[in-house]
Amino acid sequence: MRQVTAKIIMFFILFFAACSNTQAVEITLKDTPAQVYFSPNGGATYAIVEEIGKAKSEILVQAYSFTSKEIAKALVDAHKRGVHTEIILDKSNKSPKYSAADFTRNMGVPTLIDAEHAIAHNKIMIIDKETVITGSFNFTKAEVRNAENLLILKSKELAKVYIDNWNTHKKHSEEYKGRQ
Q: Please, what are the domains in the chain?
C-alpha cells in the first residue's frame, strides 16, 4: 500500500511540476481601450473588417479556421494598399476545395501552414504593432451560427507579446502552395 501511495504522490509531483513549466508572459495593461463582441450576430466580422481597413503598415494573422470571404477580401485589399500582410493557418485549411487560403495566396498574400501542432488553434490578428484581435471567434461564418467572443485591444505592449509568439510559429510553418 505504501509503495502504491508513494507512486501516486510521485505522479502528482511530476504532473504538477510539468504543468507549472509554463512560459507565461505577465503584463499589466493600463488605459487599454478594448472592444468586446459576442456572436451570433454581434458584429464581430464587421469589426474585424473595419480594423483591417484602418491598417497602415502590417497585419499578422493566425487562424484555425479561415473561410470568411469578407475577412479574406479585407486582407487582400490591405495587401494591395501596401500593408505588409502575412497569414499562418492550421493544416486543416489544406482542402480539395477552393478556400480563403487559396484566395489569399493567389492574390499574393504570403500564406503559411502551421502543421507542427495537433491543432494550430490560434485566432488572432495583430495590426500595426498595436491592435490585437483575439478570442474564440473563428474567421468564418461564426457570426451567424456560433456563440463566440471577440476582443479588440489597443496596446503596443500586448501586441509585442503576440508578435513574438506569431514569429515563433512562423519559424516552423511552411508556405501554403494551394490546391495540388
A: 27-175 (3.30.870.10)
CB 74 within 8 A of CB 52: yes
Which entry of 73, 91, 121, 129 is annotated as an active-site residue?
121
143 neighbors 45 (Cβ within 8 angstroms): yes
Q: In the annotation, is 79 catalytic? A: no
Average pLDDT taken over every residue of the chain: 86
What global pTM score does this model have? 0.84
Is 31 one of the catalytic residues? no
Active site residue 123: yes
Position 158, amino acid: L
User: Per residue in 128-151, pLDDT tens?
Assistant: 999 999 999 999 887 888 899 999
Q: Of the residues 79, 90, 102, 123, which is catalytic? A: 123
